[in-house]
Write a structure and sequence with these properties.
Organism: Geomonas paludis
Protein name: Selenium metabolism protein YedF
Order of helices and strands: EHEHEEHEHEHEHEHE
Strand content: 15-25%
Shape: elongated
Family: Belongs to the sulfur carrier protein TusA family.
Structural class: alpha/beta
InterPro entries: DsrEFH-like (IPR027396), Se_metab_YedF (IPR019870), TusA-like (IPR001455), TusA-like_sf (IPR036868)
CATH architecture of the largest domain: 3-Layer(aba) Sandwich
Number of domains: 2
Radius of gyration: 18 Å
Number of helices: 7
Oligomer: single chain
Length: about 200
């Protein structure tokens, strides 16, 4: 069994280290990691690639046993799909739209997000970074809209480092937490990226 300790590592290093270990591992991978974003991100990463994740709580975090073939073998056997086949991604980097007055910018962003519910085609994922994460936290006027988008199949994800910076992780009210590795990987394989 291969062992990896990623406790104390800042985002996105836990996911990056697990990815590297899975690419070279034979059999099971045993990972020690912190609770919170590292636990959620590594679990989502591994399961998204077809691995089974067994988790066990520890006094100082969690232990994961990751097993299964994952998607590595399948990727090697078949050529990578063209970027055209990837998801449609929206990257929202601010709680307001445009460079004008703040009040107007916040109103425009609110109206834009609420208007998405009326669109016939929705993005597959919406990533919130920087002050954009404030839109997914308690007190935001668009939390209900973001949760409805989630119910319609849109993956709503906020940057964990950004949530920590603004002290909003505990008040996240829409979607889940992600990391920069997942954001970068998704954008590089996306069919299209809409940046606001």
């Amino acid at each position: 069994m291969n062992k990896l300790d990623v406790r104390g590592m800042a985002c996105p290093l836990p996911v990056v280290q697990v990815k590297r270990a899975l690419e070279s591992a034979q059999g099971e991978l045993h990972v020690l990691l912190d609770d919170g974003a590292p636990r959620e991100n590594v679990k989502r990463f591994a399961q998204g690639r077809g691995y089974q994740v067994h988790e066990e709580p520890l006094e100082d975090g969690f232990a994961f046993t990751i097993t299964g073939p994952g998607a590595t073998a399948a990727r090697e056997a078949t050529p990578a799909p063209a970027a055209v086949a990837g998801p449609t991604v929206m990257l929202i980097g601010s709680d307001r739209m445009g460079d004008g007055p703040e009040e107007l910018g916040r109103l425009l962003m609110k109206n834009f997000i609420m208007t998405l519910l009326d669109m016939s085609e929705l993005p597959d994922r919406i990533f919130f970074v920087n002050t954009g994460v404030l839109l997914a936290a308690e007190g935001s006027e668009v939390v209900e809209t973001l949760n409805e988008l989630g119910n319609r199949g849109v993956e709503v994800l906020s940057c964990g480092i950004c949530l920590d910076f603004f002290k909003k992780k505990e008040t996240l009210a829409a979607g889940g937490v992600t990391n920069m590795f997942t954001i970068a990987e998704t954008m590089l394989t996306a069919r299209s990226v809409v940046r606001l």
